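Quarterly update from the structural biology core.
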Amino acid sequence: MIIYLGRRLIGVAGILLAICAITFTIFYLLPNDPAAAACGKTCSPERLAAVKVAMGLDQPIWSQFGSYLAGIFAGRDYGSGPSAVHCGFPCLGYSYEYGLPVWDLLADRLPVSVSLAFGAAVLWLGLGLGAGVTSALRKGSVTDRVLTVLSVGAASLPVYFTSIMLIWGIVRSAGLLPYPSYHALTEDPFGWASNLLLPWIALALLYAATYARQSRNSMIETMAEPYIRTARAKGLPALTVTVKHGLRSGMTPILTIFGIDLGGLLAGAVITESIFGLPGVGRLFYDGLIRSDQPVILGVTLLAAFFIVAANLLVDLLYAVVDPRVRY
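Predicted structure, tokenized:
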């Protein structure tokens, strides 16, 4: 297990390095000039040249990438002399638009995106798995057909439409919940949950539909396996057969898509955060696109890649826990 984990960690490091190199090259070879965006519209040629030197854009692309990569592990300075700007570990770049290191911006927004992602994940797993398992156990029944229609309908609704309808129906018309905002969990747990409930529901409805269909197909296939018939022949209770033998084995494909979905959401849900006005990483990414703030865009992209790769690594390790057959 240790050797396997070591190989996977080496693979993760190689993937992240490749993603970092490709992303850096793409963003810094675009026609847009990061120095011009940072300097502003009224920037003089002399000031623009100084900003390029401070950002290291006067160096060859390979030298820029080397400095960027070294800054991630050891920090770096932008510029020299009294006007130099220090970017500490881990330095993912410096945003001249905000006047702050990119990591400081991400660390300030990350709790919002993490709260949004994990809350929505709990809801969509509960709804999706519950609907999928129920449909599989009652295959061909009225319940199965109704749940299938609801899943297809929920999956076809864009998240921005669901979000707007939730705001209009629950906040403005009924007044049951406050307009979503962010409260720290440690300071106000009830306010944290009540203000994020609508964004959780909006995301959960979209993802739960996919998980319901996937878990239904997986459970139907698993419940037809010979070892399930053997367990039933031994006289085991139906709940034990369904949960311990059927659901655990059928969870393998669910874990795969869950790792990708959760990893992507941890780096921000751009549409959801923008509609509900949540100051998360997704909203930061959107603002970075509007302002052409390439250090911010690059930093969020690398953070998303890290979360997705890390989530997939965790899923690989959980396979052996969920499905004992994987251990052999």
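The mean pLDDT is 83.
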